[in-house]
Design goal:
The protein has helices at 57-66, 83-90, 164-169, 183-189, 197-203, 223-234; strands at residues 13-16, 19-27, 33-43, 46-50, 68-74, 93-96, 110-111, 123-127, 136-141, 145-148, 153-155, 179-181, 210-212. By secondary structure, it is an alpha/beta fold. The protein has one domain (13-234): 4-Layer Sandwich (Metallo-beta-lactamase, Chain A), CATH 3.60.15. A seven-stranded mixed β-sheet has the order 1-2-3-4-5-6-7. It has a four-stranded mixed β-sheet with strand order 8-9-10-13, with no helix packed on it. Strand 2 and strand 3 form a beta hairpin. It is globular and about 50 Å long.
Amino acid sequence: MAYAPIYPHDPIEKIDDEVYMVRGSIKMNPVVRISRNMAIIRDGHDLTLINPLRLDPAGESQLEALGTVRRVLRTGAFHGLDDPYYIDRHDAEFWCQPGGETYPLPSIDHEISAQSELPFPDADLFCFSATKQPECIIRLKRSKTVLLTCDAIQHYGDYSNSNFVARAMLPFIGFPKTTLIGPIWLKFMTPEGVSLKTEFERLLEWDFEALLSAHGTFRESGAHAAVTAALAVAFPD
């Protein structure tokens, strides 16, 4: 099987107890390359990759030093480009909500839902219930409470890992340097005649401090207030 190419990325970085991230990128078309992030959860020697991105040889060595890749967990229907690579290379289990249309493969080993128990400790799962395709959010309760999102909620402290064209374009297509509800995600995931506002209000019943989305940068603090403000922008009264 031909796998997707390796795109530029940073080294693996620890962001909390047994929680790591890789800030990388993805080429959207011949001229635009935007940021993309992977989260890594370690439980003992077992690793779970959240919304994986393929690593270069140095990154692979770092990953192998952390532990053994046991699981790939997809939280958003628009992500999945590098899932087959990790599943094949590491014989990893694939955890995913059913019903995604963008990347129908690989086949799911463990279907996840709002009632699912996650394969690592001290974590909660939030599932959107009214979106056109599945999307979920993970809350990790470690030294801080970290929200792991895919496309629904994003944070941009800067535009690093995006190329020049993307950096020039992002502020004008709804991605300013702030925390936001993904405008493209909202457009394609909202059924006709439906508002997803109550879904986000349900999420805000959770407490959380930090935010790592599948795009942008890691927000270390103030995430709950920032998402509250983003909701008011996305759904003005």
